[in-house]
Amino acid sequence: MDLLTTLQAQRAAFDAERPVAAAIRKDRLTRAIRLLVDNAEAFCAALSEDFGHRSREQTMMTDIIASVRTLKHARKHLDRWMHPEKRKLDFPLGLLGAKAWVEYQPKGVVGVIAPWNFPIQLTMGPLAGIFAAGNRAMVKSSEFTPRTAALFEELAPRYFDPAELAFVSGGPEIGQAFSALPFDHLIFTGATPIGKHILHAAADNLTPVTLELGGKSPTIIGRSADVTQATERVAIGKMLNAGQICLAPDYLLVPDDKEEAVIGGLMSAASALYPRLLDNPDYTAVINERHHVRLQSYLDDARAKGGKVIDVNPAGENFAGSNGTKMPLYIVRDPSDDMAVMQDEIFGPVLPVKRYRTIDEAIDFVNGRDRPLGLYYFGTDAAEQRRVLDRTTSGGVTINDVIFHISAEELPFGGIGPSGMGAYHGHDGFKTFSHARAVYRQPKIDIAKLAGFKPPYGQATRKAIERELTM
């Protein structure tokens, strides 16, 4: 596929179609749903092959059903989202018959660079907002999930004309060429270092960019927290997709007098959720050997620097002799700031647990690092919860659980600073992929003269100036 030719064909088709009626947008959303429903089992099989093993039920829930729900939500609310928004005018313009409103126009052609960890949901989720806004799209799939990428390329033409939706896959060279295309908008989901390159490439075309990155999402366990409930929910979030989630709890901050209880709770919860791992169809493997080696190096580094590493291996399985990339949950006690697990986004089943004495100490620790994509607080102390919310900054927050804020369609999903820029999902996604076009209609009366804006300037002008400068 010639990337620029495809982009030009999509833009020409977009210009010829304008305005993009609600019925056309709903039809594209419906066809996207049909693509997933018709081929759900094929996508599950492809993803499992890409990962070495990935739970079918997990893929169904996190990729297929999550995407279908997002697309249906956009289809359901589209008419309301498309309605122009009336805006108030300062006195006396409204009284004189002037009108103002905002129309949400499609931008044109949107580029999507999808990641490997949830390659279906993080393709189809953005497409919900893109299609709802009336755009066309080109998608660059991850080279780390080649079978899933190939399936998208095979199936998409059965449901969409290439001038509506086109898929391309390939390595860094294709990614670089893709991000340098003059899109009308570009959304990238992936690692922060790559996001910097994407932003540089898009800058040459002044392409607006949404970056969904990652970072080290902290979890604060308050003294008022139900430890059993909190540790089970953290274990579920950390072990889902083997921790390969941009919103996975990256490290725990626990009161110094609750450390033993928290670690015991994590071990009990992980063992109950996954009593065995190697042959457990519910537990996903690490994506490839490169990432498996990276995670092992974090553990070696932690041990070398005095950390205590606990492997939660309830069945006593031999992972070293398994010839696979599955890993148990590893808990790292007494992590120091110079350890790799406290510097890099972990993206795997490794969880550092750090003690704090006061809640302000925990807050200061979070604030001393890059602003994260997610932040999690467990506790029933309302004043402490408010203090954590008021004194920290993150892309989003879930209270008394982890990750769940991403599942609320009408909450904006996005990061801040190194964890991303811009947001999408629901109405916010529709707005992200639309151009908010301001429209002002002037009445017949000579407003410029009445307001003193019309030369030659005189007494009316001076009175207008004096009036506006009055406190």
From TrEMBL:
Source organism superkingdom: Bacteria
Domain Aldehyde dehydrogenase: 7-439
Residues at the active site: 212
One Pfam family here: Aldedh
Keywords (A to Z) from UniProt: NAD, Oxidoreductase
CDD domains (UniProt xref): ALDH_CALDH_CalB
PROSITE patterns: ALDEHYDE_DEHYDR_GLU
SUPFAM superfamilies on file: ALDH-like
Family named by the database record: Belongs to the aldehyde dehydrogenase family.
Protein name: Aldehyde dehydrogenase
Organism: Sphingomonas tabacisoli
Lineage summary: Bacteria, Pseudomonadati, Pseudomonadota, Alphaproteobacteria, Sphingomonadales
